[in-house]
Write a structure and sequence with these properties.
The protein is of the alpha+beta class. The protein is 35% helix and 24% strand. It has helices at residues 12-23, 36-41, 50-58, 63-68, 102-115, 232-244, 295-316, 320-323, 325-347, 357-372, 376-386, and strands spanning 5-8, 28-31, 47-48, 70-72, 75-79, 82-86, 97-99, 126-130, 138-141, 144-147, 150-153, 171-176, 180-187, 195-199, 205-211, 214-221, 259-263, 266-271, 274-275, 278-280, 286-287. Residues 2-339 form the FAD-binding domain.
């Protein structure tokens, strides 16, 4: 098989890129190792930034999202028994998040490719990406080889595209944080109205809206903790304690928990994001913790930049945007990583604070209150959190 752009992976990055390339007349093939059912059933992110929605809309990819998503412009911080509401919409020219589960966006993007007559090749695993410095890089799949002009690796942090890069000339900047997060997707009797973060002496907890009957929760735990240490009653008790100071009415009633798993809290940014005719996008090039809800948004921002760059190269012969893709995107990734880590710092008490947690918590509360009052702290937080595009 022969195509102009071979894309490994049908996550948000690969699918968004393929939709735009197809609409702009660039021939491309998405190869995905999982089944369509599995890809469309994977529940992960849910908060779309302002700039992500603006771009999807400009490409004609947001009709269902705009019709079905809910909008959020505030979040609550709980600390020392106080709830501080941060109306970031008010400090970012009215910009809002859209709450739209990742699997719905993925479904919409798969539908878009199907309508355009080029659905992803599901249940096909790419085994190797070869000849990346030649004129015709190849995707080697079981029983099939695809010859391409360019290959884009959108196959996530553990994908094979990274493995195709030469050992020298690339560096992964890895960071391991001194805690992990238990992540729980749970049925709830009432929807989370907005995001709630708790800074608590027992550790951080978070509640994120995912729909009318589903919320995602996070609980800070010691690094390396096992998921088996967290039976449902303990999860409920800890969430109630940290998010509502023990008040049962302060938290929705939790029902079935379709997903309980441990997130090893780490980040990794690969530089550069390109080698020869292989380009990386999304989690394949950079993975962040869920702090600030940035991963899917960065993946789509990569796709947006790559789509323009590949169209410029393949239709106009302009190599400039493709040559600067890695540097441009890494600058944005580093800015976003900085924000995500700053938020981690606000939400977690350092280990040495266990001797005097109240003093540390009081200073956190003061910092949180600054985000809720007009001024440079609130302005900066609002624009970075909602992803307005303003630096
Ligand atoms: P992925 O979505 O990982 O897609 C990669 C695809 O490649 C997969 O479908 C995989 O099957 C396929 N693949 C892998 N290897 C091969 C191969 N050899 N051949 C063919 N196909 C292959 N982000 C946010 O923005 N907001 C949030 O609120 C948020 N919350 C999150 C909560 C959790 C619990 C988790 C785990 C993540 C969260 N994220 C969030 C991050 C977000 O889900 C990821 O950043 C996003 O999925 C990255 O998209 P991607 O397209 O780069 O990769």
């Amino acid at each position: 098989m022969r195509t102009e752009v071979g894309i490994v992976g049908a996550g948000p990055a690969g699918l968004a890129l393929a939709n735009v390339l197809t609409r702009r007349g660039v021939d491309c093939v998405v190869v995905e190792r999982a089944s369509r059912e599995r890809v469309e059933g994977r529940q992960r992110a849910g908060l779309l930034e302002y700039r992500t929605v603006r771009w999807l809309r400009s490409q004609g990819l947001a009709d269902r999202l705009l019709a079905e998503s809910t909008r959020h412009h505030w979040c609550d911080f709980r600390c020392l028994g106080h709830t501080v509401r941060v109306d970031y919409g008010a400090y970012s020219d009215g910009h809002q998040h859209h709450v739209y589960p990742q699997q719905n966006l993925v479904r919409d993007l798969v539908d878009g490719l199907e309508r355009a007559g080029s659905p992803p090749l599901f249940s096909h695993s790419v085994r190797a990406v070869t000849n990346i410095t030649g004129r015709r890089p190849r995707l080697e799949c079981e029983g099939m080889e695809i010859e391409c002009d360019y290959v884009v690796g959108c196959d996530g942090f553990r994908g094979i595209s990274r493995a195709a890069l030469p050992a020298t000339g690339h560096r992964a900047h890895n960071r391991r944080y001194p805690y992990d997060w238990l992540t729980v997707l749970a049925e709830v009797d009432e929807p989370a109205e907005g995001v709630r973060y708790a800074v608590h002496r027992a550790g951080f907890a978070g509640m994120m809206p995912r729909g009318p009957r589903l919320s995602r929760f996070y609980l800070q735990c010691p690094p390396g903790d096992a998921v088996t240490a967290w039976p449902a009653p303990r999860i409920v008790a800890e969430l109630r304690q940290r998010l509502a100071d023990g008040d049962p009415a302060g938290l929705p009633a939790l029902g079935a928990m379709p997903e309980v798993r441990m997130l090893r809290m780490h980040s990794s940014v690969l530089t550069p994001l390109a080698h020869g005719r292989l380009l990386l996008a999304g989690d394949a090039g950079h993975v962040l913790t869920p702090s600030g809800a940035k991963g899917m948004n960065l993946a789509i921002a990569d796709a947006a930049a790559l789509a323009e760059a590949l169209v410029a190269r393949l239709r106009e012969g302009d190599e400039g945007p493709l040559a600067s893709y890695s540097a441009t995107r890494l600058a944005d990734v580093r800015r976003v990583l900085g924000f995500s880590e700053w938020l981690l710092g606000l939400l977690h008490l350092p280990g040495e604070a266990s001797a005097a947690p109240d003093a540390e918590l009081a200073s956190r509360l003061a910092a949180i209150r600054r985000l809720a009052e007009p001024g440079p702290h609130a302005y900066r937080f609002a624009h970075r959190y909602v992803g307005s595009g303003v630096r």
